[in-house]
């Protein structure tokens, strides 16, 4: 199940991932948020799930123009693919790691690092490429939001 994120949550998660890339613990502490915001570890776990599922959908060629049968066939391929199943296990583990963490910035940093490693596994992006990718994702949110 994909967790819905607001545009503000997308932007906050992206800022946190940039802080992880830059090893900026002060920025992570600021991004921990307040009482009305989702705890940063939980937000990053949700963002990681959202992003990694989008990567899987793109990798398997699913798009909005496909008919129900074609989409169903490709979803079945995703569900039977060992790498895709590992993504599901990873995102579940991230949620389990985030659940007891509250606003702990150290846990947020670990979760963010795992998300970046997973993105790297699919894209071979190094830290500089990761920053470029995060900027592109930020621009996408700003364009559509």
Class from secondary-structure proportions: mainly alpha
Q: State the separation between the terminal residues, measured CA to CA.
A: 22 Å
Mean pLDDT: 88
* Count of discrete structural domains: 1
Rg, rounded, reads 15 Å
Shape: globular
Helix content range of the residues, please? over 70%
Q: Count the helices. How many? A: 7
The main β sheet shows up as: none
> How do the helices and strands follow one another from N- to C-terminus?
HHHHHHH
DSSP strand (E) fraction? Answer: under 5%
Strand element count: 0
Tell me about this structure.
It is a single chain. The protein has 145 residues and is mostly helical. 75% of the residues lie in helices and 0% in strands. The longest helix has 20 residues, at 40-59. The two termini are 22 Å apart.
Q: Quick summary of this structure?
A:
This protein is mainly alpha-helical. Helices cover 75% and strands 0% of the residues.
Keywords:
7 helices, mainly alpha, single chain, 145 residues
Which helices and strands, and how do they pair?
Blueprint (H helix, E strand, L loop, with lengths): L6 H15 L3 H7 L8 H20 L8 H13 L1 H17 L6 H19 L3 H18 L1
């Amino acid at each position: 199940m994909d967790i819905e994120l607001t545009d503000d949550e997308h932007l906050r998660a992206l800022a946190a991932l940039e802080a992880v890339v830059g090893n900026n613990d002060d920025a992570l502490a600021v991004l921990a948020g307040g009482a009305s915001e989702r705890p940063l570890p939980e937000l990053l776990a949700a963002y990681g799930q959202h992003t990694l599922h989008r990567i899987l959908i793109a990798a398997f060629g699913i798009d909005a123009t496909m008919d129900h049968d074609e989409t169903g066939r490709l979803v079945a391929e995703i569900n039977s693919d060992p790498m895709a199943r590992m993504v599901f296990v990873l995102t579940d583990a991230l949620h389990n790691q985030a659940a007891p963490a509250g606003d702990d910035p150290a846990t947020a940093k670990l979760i963010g690092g795992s998300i970046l490693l997973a993105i790297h596994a699919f894209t071979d992006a190094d830290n500089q490429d990761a920053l470029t990718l995060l900027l592109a994702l930020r621009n996408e949110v700003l364009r559509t939001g």
